[in-house]
User: What shape does this take?
Amino acid sequence: MSKFEFSNKNEKKFQELLTRYPNKMSLTLPSLWMIQYQEGWISQDAMIYLAKKLETTPIDIHSIASFYTMFNLKPIGIHHIQVCKTLSCKLCGSEKIRSHLKNRLGINFGETTKDMKFTLSEVECLGACGEAPAMSLNDDYIGNLSIKKIDKILDEL
Amino acid sequence: MIVQIISKNFKIENSHKLKVALKHDRYSSLKRLFSLTPNEVIEEVAKSGLRGKGGGGAHTGDKWKLMPQNHEKPSYLVVNADESEPGTFKDRQIMEHDPHLLIEGIINSSYAIGANHAYIYIRGEYLFCTKRLNDAIEEAYKAGYLGKKVAGFDYKLDITVHRGAGAYICGEKSALLESLEGKRGHPRLKPQQKEPEWFFGAPTVVNNVETIASVPYIISNGFKNYRNYGTQESPGTMLFGLSGHVENPGIYELPFGVNMKDVIETIGGGVKGSKKLKAVIPGGSSCQILKADEIENITLDYESLKAHGSTLGTGGMIIIDKDTSIPKVMKNLFEFYHHESCGQCTPCREGCGWVDKILGKLLDKKGTRKDFDTILDACEMLNGKTICVFAPSVAFIANSYISKFQDEFYSLCKN
Ligand SMILES: Cc1cc2nc3c(=O)[nH]c(=O)nc-3n(C[C@H](O)[C@H](O)[C@H](O)COP(=O)(O)O)c2cc1C
Ligand code: SF4
Ligand code: FES
Assistant: This one.
């Protein structure tokens, strides 16, 4: 028995989405997003639950979920910082920003602080090259980064 | 130099709200649109010479003509809002500042190709744009611009926003459709002849956000007016991007055919800190690099870039100053390609990794000249032996970096 279940809100959303696609397999990504927002990550239980709903196998769902970098297959911190490592940001000094974030949080990329407060990731071009260097903090973009700006943001969290 | 066809409303306060959008011409193309037959709309777009802004520059009208007239399954329009090419951040401006322009474009385009449902596939990171789009779509449904009778005409249209989840390759149109079908974003093998794309076996057009956003102007003002801008082969305008070592980074709408150097020096304000220019990557990272002395006579259009051994791509120029190490630039991009190869084809999956590793070795001063042979061998394997054009374009760019900056690469070698 899977311990995961969609919240009422998500179940309603799921039913609504069913009417918007010619085939329910299209609901894989939208459902994985709903799970991630509901649980904070995507557990095995949730994948088993989703497989049943979409009439496929859990391993299929796992293979799809693991293809996409934004799906978290393990729990992450409350604040997820994703800093861009690609060219335009690099040319605008992202190296300094990246090492400052690592030093300040005391973790490497791909790691979470022990108190589960912060997860630090490095990501490819965010599509914010005009405001390089850039990062995202949970769902928001922050551009034109400087060490001072980062300290101010982190101090306030 | 700057013109405003697509970007007209970008700086207007609250331009994303329907009330404001309506005051500034949004949805004004619909009257003429519905006075034309779908085929007449396709013809108008074909005559305008509109070319796809997603990187390939395909003629939009020709693409639409590939749609079968009486297929048993319904037709679909899928808008490519995956925008993940390094150096590219233009589609975002449209979705943030003028989502109703995109919706209006979708109505025009869907009507032309006979689609009653359109999907916008948007990259997962663009959450702000996703919300903007969803809000605008909701407003449009309420005001009767979407739904059973679009603007009171006998035409039904629904739009659904579909969020990706972080995979560069999903910008490739067939990978995008695989992803929309709920699978891994693996590009499909291409057919011998030109045909439409297929979404669950139904005929489908995939177009970039900016392409679709260009359509309302053409329908409102006629193809001749669109052709007043740009060149014969590259008509109209494009949202060009400037990033990297430039004083005024940003997105600027320009007619095709303007001089690249002028754009960098005037609109861009020149190289940051008044340094000397070393190189420009003209249209997103997948375009061959150009040396400073090569750009003197280049104009921003498909033909000129091609004649100079590169491509216009997405129009996102990355400016690189004199003090930058080109091997380091190349290494940075190969980390990207290594990470983003979808992994279906062995030459691509392994080759991008090899080149990345060898570049690392060279930068650590542990390489020899023989390593370049290995890089060129890997490029040979990447070219023409894979499912999609990701690998060949990686091979082209590798060659351009190494051949144009050979001395700099050789100076890293032990012997
Ligand atoms: C590796 C790869 C990545 C691509 N990424 C994008 C993208 O992010 N956005 C986009 O619109 N087109 C992208 N394209 C181009 C699409 O395959 C397709 O040609 C385009 O969306 C068609 O629209 P257009 O004709 O309006 O340009 C990419 C192509 C390749 C090979
Ligand atoms: S060339 Fe690379 S990205 Fe394209 S299908 Fe093959 S492995 Fe995937
Ligand atoms: S390179 Fe960092 S946002 Fe594009």
